[in-house]
Amino acid sequence: MFWIWFIVIGALAGWLAGIITRGRGFGLLGDFVLGVIGALVGGFLFSLIGLAAYGAIGSLVTATVGAIVLLALARLLKSA
Q: Beta-carbon neighbour count of residue 69 at 10 Å?
């Protein structure tokens, strides 16, 4: 059940990150994949600065932050 929840939160985070970055994402599927990976990145980044997020909303915020960071990095690499 954890993995299903992880994928759902990651997919929502990717979608939100695409909206927050003004629709300049990588399409629906690309944003979903970046959101799932962003959930891992967001958790890592939050642990580095000593923050912890609990519950569905906290997980969504963490994953969205990670997805935004990944989208920004992907844009930098894509434009280079």
A: 16
